[in-house]
Amino acid sequence: MPHDTHNFQLEAISHLLDNDDMLLLTATGTGKTDTFIRTMHVIRYLTENHASAPEGVSFPHDPAMVIVCPTKALEEEMELKMRKAGLTAVAINEDTVTLFAARTCDMIFASSSERYSPALD
User: A Pfam family matched by this chain, by name (predicted)?
Assistant: First the structure.
């Protein structure tokens, strides 16, 4: 993950911390994945350091982020990037759904083509 943070990443993180819905559209390779990573690191920090959180901002004790990806290949690529950034992550698809059933993690990736699976019950 690069050390510099782009303005659009800071803006996205700010909106997410304000509990705003948002749609992030940027070109391939410009830092969308890094935005997810940075956001989760901020959320985890604020979860552990409540006094640092802006007024009215709170998160669950054990936060998780769900990211829907268009392909299994992208899920797997992002899962590796998240792990390298010190986050726990799992890609859920028809090849891995039964392995996921009892795991907890920071980041969850699912392909947009996935359907409900009884293995998640």
Answer: DEAD
Average pLDDT over all residues of the chain: 80
22 and 44 both lie in a single domain = yes
Domain count, the chain: 2
Q: Are residues 41 and 76 in the same domain?
A: no
User: Which pTM does this prediction carry?
Assistant: 0.74
List the structure tokens of 93: 């698809």
C-alpha to C-alpha distance for 39 and 120, rounded to whole angstroms: 26
Judge whether 89 and 83 are in contact, CB under 8 Å.
Answer: yes
Helix, strand, coil percent content, the chain, rounded in steps of 5: 40, 10, 45
- Helix, strand, or coil (residue 92): strand
Alpha-carbon gap, residue 13 to 68, rounded angstroms: 18
